[in-house]
Specification:
By secondary structure, the protein is of the alpha/beta class. It is 44% helix and 17% strand.
């Protein structure tokens, strides 16, 4: 049977209100009484009902983070950044995954809303309905997006257009004539990377061909291994690949190329995206676009905290991080 405040009060010989004041660290209680209550709490293995207390206070002390998959490097690094700042606050972190199912997104957000599971939300690379965001705001639950633009909510994002432009431009300057783009199948960051790729081709008077754009879903090493055949089937003259779907997928493409006897960078140049730690350990080392994912996660929580503390509403704020081309050996 669960131990209650009344049980503690009966054992110590005080009122339930006194026990509650001790648990909440009220300075009005004498040191002698405080010690007796805390000793009984420990002896009887009492645990406060935080869920019930949060309902009374209107707070959960939870921050919800919603993403398609937490297995993706971007989501994992974002969460690491969020945790760096969150550990110095009173909040706990709850992760919610849509498992890549678009139809699950609205249902998941509605459940978080109606069950009041979080005091604030950070949504990673998912485009929530703006009406749902408005409902959260009416209930005093601020929402911050990472890598998506939604009217009425702040966003922390990466300059994907510039990042894709830098990667494509570098391939062109290294003499590549037929450049393929590997990118996600939906979302703002995929659209922006296509735009940056296209802008670079146009600037250097090179043809833009839809068949040279390959979409991925899982952003995995295995998917990268399978992509090389698709890339070369679409255009056998491809001599450069900008993998805007991340370094893991780029490394999968590199592995498939080596298995086919295709030399990197002599036969084909490959550029990744993210600059994860293993990109410097591949043979050859992977040239890539560095994006400060962890810092983006940190800034997203700092922004949410400002909103929770009433320091800013930040409704239309867009915080953008700039790319850096990391030149190694794969081009």
């Amino acid at each position: 049977m669960r131990v209650t405040i009344k049980d503690i009060a009966k054992k110590v010989g005080v009122t339930p209100a006194t026990v509650s004041m001790v648990i909440n660290n009220n300075p009005k209680i004498s040191q002698k009484t405080r010690e007796k209550v805390l000793e009984a709490v420990k002896e009887m293995n009492y645990h406060p009902n935080y869920i019930g207390r949060s309902l009374v206070k209107g707070k959960t002390n939870n921050i919800g983070v919603v993403a398609s998959f937490f297995a993706s490097l971007f989501a994992l690094e974002s969460v690491r950044g969020i945790e760096q700042v969150l550990r110095n606050t009173e909040y706990n972190l709850s992760l919610y995954s849509t498992r890549g199912l678009e139809e699950k997104e609205a249902d998941l957000l509605q459940r978080i809303y109606y069950e009041r599971r979080a005091d604030g939300l950070i949504i990673i690379s998912l485009k929530a309905d703006k009406n749902m965001v408005e409902e959260f705001k009416k209930e005093g639950v601020p929402v911050v997006f990472i890598e998506e633009l939604v009217e009425g909510a702040p966003t922390v994002k990466f300059n994907n257009i510039k990042g894709a432009f830098l990667a494509t431009e570098y391939l062109i300057k290294k003499g590549r004539k037929n450049i393929a783009l590997v990118v996600g199948d939906k979302g703002l960051n995929a659209e922006e990377r296509v735009k940056g790729y296209r802008d670079a081709l146009i600037k250097y008077n090179m043809p833009y061909k839809e068949e040279n754009i390959i979409n991925v879903v899982n952003y995995s090493f295995e998917e990268g291994e399978e992509l090389l055949d698709i890339i070369l089937e679409n255009n056998s003259k491809i001599d450069g690949v900008f993998c805007g779907a991340g370094d893991i997928t780029a490394i999968g493409i590199m592995d498939a190329a080596k298995n086919r006897g295709i030399k990197i960078p002599d036969d084909i140049g490959i550029i990744g995206y993210d600059d994860i730690y293993i990109s410097n350990l591949t043979t050859p080392a992977l040239t890539t676009i560095r994006q400060p994912i962890m810092q983006m996660g940190m800034r997203s929580f700092e922004l949410l905290l400002e909103m929770l503390e009433g320091k800013t509403d930040s409704e239309s704020k867009i915080i953008s991080f700039e790319p850096e081309l990391i030149i190694r050996e794969s081009v």
